[in-house]
Amino acid sequence: MAATYGSFKYVPAEADGDRRTYWAIAAQPHVMTRLKRVFPQLRQDRTRVAMLADTPQSSRDLQWFMDRWPLAPADAVSLARLEARATGHRNTEDTVLRILEGHQPQYGWREPARPARAYQQQAADLVHATGRLLLVDDLGLGKTFTSLLVLRNPAALPALVVTLTALPAQWLGELEKSLPWLRGHIVTGRTPYDLAARMPDNRDPDVLIMSYSKLAGWGDHLAGRVRCVIFDEMQELRRGDRAQKGIAGAAIADEATFRVGLTATPVYNWGDEIHTIVSILDRDALGTREEFSREWCRGLDPSNGKVKVADPAALGTYLRDTGVMLRRTRADVGRELPEVIRIEQPVDTDHERLRQLSGDAAEMARLVLTAADRQVRFQAAGKLDMRIRHATGVAKAPFVAGFVRLLLESEQRVLLLGWHRECFAPGTEVLMYDGSVKNVEDVREGEQVMGPNSTPRTVLSLTKGAGKLYRIVPNKGQPWVCSENHILTVWNGRRYEKVTAREYAEAPARWQRARTLYRAETVTFDGELPALEPWLMGYWLGDGAASLKDFRVASADAEVEAELRGVAARHGLSLSVWAAPGASGASAAKQLALSSGLQGPKNRHVLLRHYRALGLGSAKRIPPSYLTAPVEDRRQLLAGLIDSDGHVYRGNGVGSASYTTKSAALAADVAFLARSLGIAAYIAEKQVTTGYATGTYYSVSISGDLTALPMRVRRKRAAARAGQKNVLRTGFRIEPAGEGEYHGFEVDGDNLFLLGDFTVVHNCYDIWINELRDFYPTLYTGTESPAEKQRSVELFKAGTSRVLMMSLRSGAGLDGLQDYCNVVVFGELDWSPGVHAQAIGRLNRDGQTEPVLAYFMVSDDGSDPPMAEVLDLKRQQADPLVDPDADLATPVNTAGVDRIKALATDVLRRHSQPVAASPGPPPTNGWSQLELVATAADPSI
User: Fold this and answer.
1) Residue 797's pLDDT band (boundaries 50, 70, 90)?
2) Any idea which architecture 109-326 has in CATH?
3) Residue 206 in contact with residue 179, Cβ under 8 Å?
4) What's the CATH fold of domain 421-521+728-763?
5) Matching SMART domains, A to Z (predicted)?
6) Where are the alpha helices (DSSP H) in 284-344?
């Protein structure tokens, strides 16, 4: 009997714990040392027993290891298990090799309506043979049709296709053209419903098609029900079980017979994303995350769990050799296109604007350079980069537009890429330049909205879409809802700064408390018309007879009687005064009536005619013409309101007043009026009991400098406000509002405009639109409706528009641009080189006859230098995984200089603040601080 050096034992999965099976190996010390060298992924417990994951690959390798150092099986089950797993691996390897060498199995299934190319059928055959495949063919090689070939197999039905939000209809069209005998259905709800009831024949569909946004709600329902799952653009699941859609996708894949992933860019960021993607398709292929890290990676970052692959090319070769991943280039299949020419184009930056928009970057820069706590440095670095990245985009935008204008002297069309725009939830009120208020969804192109300096902002274009929303809740005032990328304009105690809703929501509480929203100062309106006796209008709205049978008001104040005598004299009227019914004493209310002394059709009562013409006899509202009257008239109007139903506070409340009414509409008018004068106003509903009855009243709280209001009643005249607090600024909190519809528009000028409550807001900078208006730029940003997107594309193809402005991550599935354009300009950079590759693919497709020129606009200031370096680091991780011949000038082990510290130092220099010494060396574990910043600042990770 041959000598043995130890033993091995099969360890089945735990019923209620770890679902994986293992090999438990105990051997002599020198053999254990060899074992660890051969299997770097294994772990060893305190009993000196090594645990090796039981996968087909590891089982075969263990059998090979035992040829040199024999191990005794602990029992017959262990021996049989090892033989079966190793034999299965050999058979699969042989099958994969035969298919890759050109063997085409004959299945006898129905042929597709369109003939398949040999390389497409080869990929489908691999899926049938192994049950899984990550297909990473070049863009434009027909991955969609290739995956549909798998569905020729009856054992693959019913099937599920998961794709990007804009593509379900395109997938359904491909299914109907390729496999017309199969019945498809696009899932329309986020929660399960009766699928058969939605089909014409009342039978469940053969193929379900849904977007990733709906996957989480359907995960439990579909797990075990679909036999094949196809993940289109599978990099969407790169976060794995850190996202609900990743959990749902893995649950469905675990129970499916066939699993297919499609993407030309499986790695968007760092190389370890490949483990997440592959493990959804095949849990055994790369082992657990810990095993994968020990075998293939280096430099675990404990703050976020990200790791870098030590040798991406070797990992890619392993995945291809085992049939887990398949990659064919255009050259491999004889469908080459002209080479893409990538050009890094230096571009100027408005340094002063960069400084202004950087906000409190200096504070974050100091934390990056001086904070002793590593996590504090990490978070500050991420926020610094996010702030500077936005500011950099704005500061270089005019120069990017200038470069595009130069290109258009020799090029017919240019595809210009940047970040998409932010919007507001439906129902958000916007102040128009004429003083009216419209819901954001009702604003139309060409209309004018009000700017904070009382000048108009013209609406250049409209947009709408759906996505993540946040609710902005002011400490004083009404809440409003915006998209996560909406730019909030806030006051930080020293200057105004701009920050996205998501950035604010993710900021520390202390940082948030130091920021306030702000409202506009006194606003003047276009086409102002003088109001007729505005003080009297205000007083009548409070204490006047609503019927307008005559013109009467009630008051116990001598100042009011004196004012009405003056009105009577100015308009040829007479004043009658009598005691109100039941009134007695010096402070008793009086009835005061203005009359002309004429009756019938010849009535010349100017006030009655005016009020009736304004429609005030049916309901008390401030007429629109009064709300937009000259500033002094509006002050008179507000003074009259306060003299009637208002109360002016003294003592601790000096500088504030309130107005109470039973009319919600009138309360809203009063608040609008006050805000238009630069006075803070907030509405509160309250229950008031008078006698035995309780009713709803609305109280408008007014605060600010009220000394400019000419109240007539002496006891209601405002004293000077002692405090220096600016009442137009208010703290606020932000809270998630789920996902939903949003609307927005682009304006000219400084991109600032007012909401209906006079809050100053910012719509995404669209300097490009202004600078390139001569070329009729059109938009495809991912937030327009399908019809609007199609219109933009058609105008671009027709040559009416020579600039198509597209969001960096929009346009999935868009085809046809390559017939009209070969120039793409990256006005802004994305964190992922994969996004850049996909964007270039909008032009570098079948039908392109010219080399695609890709210009990357890179500034030497702001965020561009460190972003460019991060992109290079990520490219070193991603490219060799899919392309063993990738040309990388810099080895992956070279992290480069710590540019984020250089960026922080430069920020402090621009703010003329001293640069303190760093508290210590940069983070270890193989990660530079620049790379750590990338994982913090990149929303796609």
Assistant:
1) very high
2) 3-Layer(aba) Sandwich (3.40)
3) no
4) Endonuclease - Pi-scei; Chain A, domain 1 (2.170.16)
5) DEXDc
6) 289-296, 312-321
